[in-house]
């Protein structure tokens, strides 16, 4: 019993102070290397792909001009969804609804583009102003969507894992129904059913090099600002202490509800802003662009140990696996094989980490 108490106290100390992050990140990197070696071995042994060809598929094609843009775009949006999970997690709130917040934010941003589409086409308003307004509306919508789950937890003591997960299921059909009813999109027989009209007047106005949108530098800035707030400010310390143990901060007069609202709103705000980035990249709204991003973002947050440096590394790694699943299809490898290896690797990492703690 004494051993369990000491172990729990050390775990809480690491969570609040961040001690042991380097060791945990090293364990994450080791897990990523093992996952890559296992996948490489499967390609050579099971699918009978030559050593040089397998190396080319996993490394050479990934860094080619054809796939580099998809790799970087995917890494950025996964970093956003990973941080959208990690910030509330530090306060003790398990936000598994990042995908729904992403979709709601993108839909609200798309409505702004749709509203001002004719004005922008005639040159009446600068596109930068409309993009800024769309970003603010989308981010706010994502925050409100996330805060609704927190309200249910505080008011009715409903588990946020259940509510945020179910709100993911609500967000997709809700957005589809609203966009179709407002005449912003047409229903089709595709995998996600919704095909939107182009929302951006000209892709050249919103794209940068490698297929990234011009919102990418802003998103990167918010990534590091969020990290600074969480790990370099007194409110951030209070927020992390709440996630470790609510009893002690409550006795010290820390406003627990306020810090919870800030953490959850910030996570939803980042997810909603990520929805705008997807709009700017593709120039239209399509539910297929958001499928799976929230759940992979959870894996990014866990592998990155909830710190921005680790999250960026994990986002780059898992984005490369998403791209590789498309590349490997050309060699006759089922994309599900990559997904299974990815999931087994993350679960194995969590088991090792739990055993270590």
Describe this structure in words.
This protein has helices at residues 2-17, 21-45, 51-60, 65-90, 98-115, 117-121, 127-156, 160-181, 216-232, 234-244, 247-251, 256-282, 293-303, 308-329, 335-356, and strands spanning 185-187, 194-196. It is mainly α. The protein has a single domain, classed as ABC transporter involved in vitamin B12 uptake, BtuC (Orthogonal Bundle), CATH 1.10.3470. Strands 1-2 form a two-stranded antiparallel sheet. The longest helix is centred in the middle third of the chain and has 30 residues, at 127-156. The chain is globular and about 60 Å long.
Task: Please tag this protein with its features.
2 strands; two-stranded antiparallel sheet; 357 residues; ABC transporter involved in vitamin B12 uptake, BtuC; 15 helices; single chain
